[in-house]
Amino acid sequence: MGNLTDLTARECLAALESGRISSQELTQACLARMDALEWDIHAFITPTPEKALAAARAADERRADLKKRGDIIPPLLGLPLAVKDVLCVAGTRATCGSKILENYVPPFSATAVQRLLDAGAVVLGKTNTDEFAMGSSTENSAYGVTRNPWNRERVPGGSSGGSAAAVAARFAPAALGTDTGGSVRQPAAFCGVTGVKPTYGRVSRYGLIAYGSSLDTVGVLARSAEDAEMILRLMAGHDELDATSSQEPLFQAAGADIPDLTGLRIGVPVEYFIKGIQPEVETAVRAAIAEFESLGAQVREISLPHTAYALPVYYLIAPAEASANLARYDGVRFGLRVEDGGVVEMFMQSRGRGFGAEVKRRIMLGTYALSAGYYDAYYGQAQKVRALIRADFDRTFEQVDAIAAPVTPSTAFPIGGHGDDPLAMYLEDVFTLPANLAGVPGLAFPVGFDQAGLPVGMQLMGRHFGEATLFKMGRAYQHATDWHTRSPLLLKKI
Amino acid sequence: MTLTLKEVEHIALLARLELDAEEKTRYQKQLSDILDYVAQLQKLIIPDQPLTSASGIPAARLREDQPRQGLSTDEALRNAPVRRDNQFRVPPVLE
Q1: What is the pTM for the complete model shown?
Q2: Roughly what angle, to the nearest 10 degrees, separates helices B21-38 and A357-370?
């Protein structure tokens, strides 16, 4: 049969359904693989093996019981998943990769998580993340770096680096991540897995510990577009507990047929193919676009003229929102408290000691951009330019159905590669930020490798609430190619 | 540099962040670099438009004003750094 951990999420569910394997066996296999490799990869901040096995046992018992009674079986019953540590899972600590929440145990689960738990999923543990999701390499975690399973000297990307590494290393068939500036798509590209950033408002943010409230989305990392779609559909939908969640109806489930892309119009934005992209990244992405053409799509060049402004706009809006969202970490009701003098002293010491450098930088940037005398010039202006960026997308989608682009300017960079140069790190996000600013969905998937054996990813961006088109294209591509089936050889036998 | 050390200290105070001397100098340089970079936005002249058009956030919908079960007191206090009875204990707020 081969390793159970080689099964995709769909294959796991089929095997569970047929009785070929039990959830306990599957979960044991994931945990055994983690035991063998986690000392090196460090994808998890908080693995929860006992809870996972207990949940797996319960899932097996429940399946047997439901079968006997002829009742409907929850769609993910017994499927192991990993969850990024910025999403709350009731009863398990949520650190957000920060010392300030080292011992915080949420009394509730995020809606996105709860919906998957209701569907029967088994949580293996909480994965590593850049602190408060601020970063593009997972190097900003207070709990150590995660190594890219394809090359341990390289970053897995960020901020959902732990989740991407967990899927690439086959610790879990799928994992939840979050994408505020590219944090699902970029690690998906670096780790050779498939990642979806949904439309803003598609998935509830309740229980997602907030970074940038107008930008945060909950996404999925998995080994195929098909798997990502299945899981996203179960999380999506309006939630009373999130005033920004949309009433938009759920997109259609995929049919069994191989999708036909005839007549689908793909736009290739000139602004995303700039000098400075690693040549092998451009080659692989253009080859993938050619593959879409051979599958029946029409490809044309388009322009998103305000693309270059996405970086400065994001690095004003996101820190501004973060400065407000992180004001709650004051040592009063939860998190680290350094009690030293009066109450203001307590705030200053708790936050000064509890937050890492990148978080402090962004809080200060945001505080400055929102402060009296600077608000209009910085934050106000950024919001106006954001509207222009969004309008670029709206206008483009009158002419095309999807936009094809690289995810990153290069393949995974070395751990420590950006030193203490925050701006250099920010430039990693150039191709992913626009989708967050515009609120549109994006699907990243592997399209090749470079000479060093590192994965190359590309992304498709779609209309607001147009995830179905992206998944259709992703499935068609993955039916015709096999990049997404490759995985790093980590163990000879387990 | 775009930011003076005094301005960095002021921002840190507004944000309630205690910084040591090394941090202040380091962030002064880094924040100045970042602000110089984002300042390019100020060169754009944009016709006036409603601010709310960008984020796509739907207007707030209110639910029925009916009481519901929330967190229990115990659940709400469970992560309290310092607790006394049913209260979060904090240093005196007023002198």
Answers
A1: 0.97
A2: 60
Name the residue facing A315 among B14, B38, B93 (closest C-beta): B38
How do A265-269 and A44-47 pair as beta strands?
unpaired
Phi first, then psi: give them for residue A340, nearest 5 degrees. -150, 90
Which contiguous run of DSSP H or E holds residue A195? strand A194-197
Q: Tell me the ipTM for this assembly.
A: 0.93
From the CA atom positions of chain B, what is the Rg in Å?
22
Query: What are A13's two structure tokens?
Result: 């569910």
Of A134, A147, A146, the closest CA to residue A96 belongs to A134
Chain A partners within 8 Å of B13 (Cβ): 348
Active site residue A84: yes
CA dihedral A386, A392, A397, A403 (to 10 degrees): -90
Dump pLDDT digits (tens) for B3-52: 999 999 999 999 999 999 999 999 999 999 999 999 999 888 887 765 55
For residue range A293-321, what is the model confidence (pLDDT) as tens digits?
A: 999 999 999 999 999 999 999 999 999 99
What are the structure tokens assigned to A286, written together?
A: 């253009």
Q: How far apart are CA A482 and CA A469, in angstroms?
A: 20
Average pLDDT of A140-156? 98
- Contacts of A401 by beta carbon, 8 Å cutoff, 6+ apart: A264, A265, A266, A462, A463, A466, A469
Write down the pLDDT at residue B78: 96
Q: Which of A214, A331, A348 sits opposite B81 (nearest CB)?
A: A331
Q: A451 to each of A10, A156, A281, A355, A447, how far by Cα in Å? A: 31, 18, 11, 38, 14
A207 in Cβ contact with A112 (< 8 Å): yes
Phi, psi angle pair for A53, to nearest 5°: -65, -40
Residue A267, H or E segment? strand A265-269
Q: Quickly state the pLDDT bin for B55 (edges 50, 70, 90).
A: low
The C-alpha angle A179, A183, A186, rounded to 5 degrees, equals 130
Instruction: Count other C-beta atoms under 10 Å from residue A261's C-beta.
Output: 23
Choose among A337, A377, A384: nearest Cβ to B81.
A337
**Is some CB atom of chain B closer than 8 A to the CB atom of A388?**
yes
Nearest CA in chain A to B57: A244
pLDDT at B21: 97
* Rounded alpha-carbon distances, angstroms, from residue A374 to A133, A287, A379, A381, B6: 26, 46, 8, 10, 16
Tokens describing residue A353: 């000691």
Q: What gap in Å lies between CA A470 and CA A458, rounded to an integer? A: 12
CB contact under 8 A, A367 and B42: no
